[in-house]
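FORM 7B - TANDEM STRUCTURE REPORT

SECTION 1: FIRST PROTEIN
SEQUENCE AND TOKENS:
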Amino acid sequence: MELSEAFGVFDPRGSGLVEQRSFLLSVQALGYEPKTQDIMEIIAKSTSRAHNETIDFKDYYNLMSAKMTEDDKREDILIAFKMFSSPETGVITLDNLMEIAEELKEDISHEKLQEMIHFADKKGDGTVTYHEFAEMMERPELE
């Protein structure tokens, strides 16, 4: 369902505004399950109107586009993690990085690969979990 269609379902009079409750229902129609309180906070922070009882299409579009982009980014991070990690262990190890470098015929030193693990490994156990990998990929210095 397109964003304009989802918005239009809850704006049958074509006023260009939907109530907060309708906004919540339209978000759910797109497959998201947010809490009502989360929706209220999002609307309060993001809308251009003073009383925030309704949301217009511009704000709706901006909110939903940001949410959909965030979801795409998470999916991309998961795909990348699966490419680097071992299905048996569910983590990224130095051996995994060495194998990938070899497959790609990249001449990367053992020390440089160890640095990569260390950069993401917050627990200090020599492995990178999905959570650590996702946090690393979302760091501003990598964007």
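SECTION 2: SECOND PROTEIN
SEQUENCE AND TOKENS:
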Amino acid sequence: MSTPRRSETEETRERTNASERRSVIALVSRQTLAERFRFACTRCGAAWEAGYDVAHVEDGYGHTRDYYFTHGWSCPDPTAPDAVLCPTCGRHRVQVTAVTTPEQERVLAGAGAVT
């Protein structure tokens, strides 16, 4: 006795569902925080602050990755080399310092991190 052949639609649907299950399993946690950074230009001395929404994502394999957004748009990590331009003189080399807010300190303390 032979088993009935499944249609292509059923096979495609099964592959799609399996792919979606893997995607859900792969993304274990996501936490989005508002973070601020202080910048100082090494050429002209201009100083400014900017806020970013940072999505801290951990997959099912223990790897973590941060995704940065400003004004709703994806952007590079502001601490990466040459990621930020001085708004006054256009120089790429700026000093970056993270500004820790009381909310971030509470989150870090709750996660067991040393502040």
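SECTION 3: OBSERVATIONS ON SECOND PROTEIN
Residues 20-25 have pLDDT under 50 and may be disordered.
The two ends are 68 Å apart (CA to CA).

SECTION 4: SIGNATURE
Preparer initials: ____
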